[in-house]
Design brief:
about 0% strand, mainly alpha, about 110 residues
Length: about 110
Amino acid sequence: MAEKYQRFDPAAYVKPEGDVRGLLRAAAEEDQGDGAVIRSVLKHIAQTQNMSALARDTGLNRGNLYEALSEDGNPTLSTLLKLAGALGLRLRLESVEEQTLTRTQQ
């Protein structure tokens, strides 16, 4: 019997605000420093929203928004701040705990 696969659509699973926060927290912890994981998660979160409304709220057009969040995208800090605000989020920098520093230096 042949197996059937369906394309994974995170928009079907990331609905409540708590899911969004948890997904972003996990992405920030798992990102290798190039922003790829965070960008990918932001793209999936944005896709759970109305992209036209997000474009309007960020002042960007939909094409630029999709491009910035694409696999090859490299969104500017300004774009990230606008997107976070439109999603009801806030970017926050915090100090790295000593334990995390020790673990990454090994």
